[in-house]
Amino acid sequence: MQPNELNDLLNKGREAVEKGYIPSAQVFFSQVAEQHNIPEVRSYLAYCLAKSQGRTQVAAKTCIESIRREPDNPTHYLLLGRIHLLTDDKDKAVQVLRQGAKINKDPRLLNEINKMGLRKPPVMTGLKRNHPLNRFLGKLLARLGLR
After folding, report:
1. pLDDT for the residue 119
2. Which DSSP helix (H) or strand (E) runs through 42?
3. Would residue 20 be called left, alpha or beta, if left means φ above 0 and alpha means ψ between -120 and 50 degrees?
C-alpha cells in the first residue's frame, strides 16, 4: 500500500471518529495498522474498542502505553480522556486532558475541556473554591489576562 493511501485511510478514520462512525473508523484504522503499527493508530483502535465494545480498561492501558511512546502527541491524551468519560470518570478525564493541554495547546483538547463545562482550578488550591480570596484572585487574574 502506498504512503498516500495510508494517509488517506488515516484521515478517513480520524474523520469517522469525530463524526461518531466508530465501526467505519475501526475498519480504516485496522487497515492502516496492518501496514504500520504506530502508537496513534493503536490509540484510535483502542478508543474504537472502548466505544463499540465497552472494553475501557484495555483501551486505557493501550493509550497510556502510547503516551509513554509519544508523550508530545495530543491525540493520545484526547482519546484517553474520552475513554475515561465513557466510564463516567470525569476527574481522570479532566486530569488527562489538562495534562495534554499543558504539553500541546491542541484545539481538540481545549474543545473537549470546554464541552465538559469545566472551570479552572482555584488559584489557591489549599482554600475552597468559594473562599473570598480565591474568588478575588481568580477575577483579578482573569481581568489581567493571566488566567
Report:
1. 74
2. helix 39-53
3. left
Torsion of CA 131, 110, 53, 87, to 10 degrees: 0
**Percent helix, strand and coil across the chain, each to the nearest 5:** 75, 0, 25
Kindly compute the dihedral angle of the four CA atoms of residues 106, 107, 108, 109, in this order, to the nearest 10 degrees.
60
How many angstroms separate the Cα of 6 from the Cα of each of 22, 50, 74?
18, 23, 21
What is this structure's pTM?
Answer: 0.79
Of 99, 40, 120, 111, the C-alpha closest to 73 is 40
Residue with cell 473570598: 132
CATH architecture under which domain 3-116 falls: Alpha Horseshoe (1.25)
Residue range(s) occupied by CATH 1.25.40.10 in the chain: 3-116
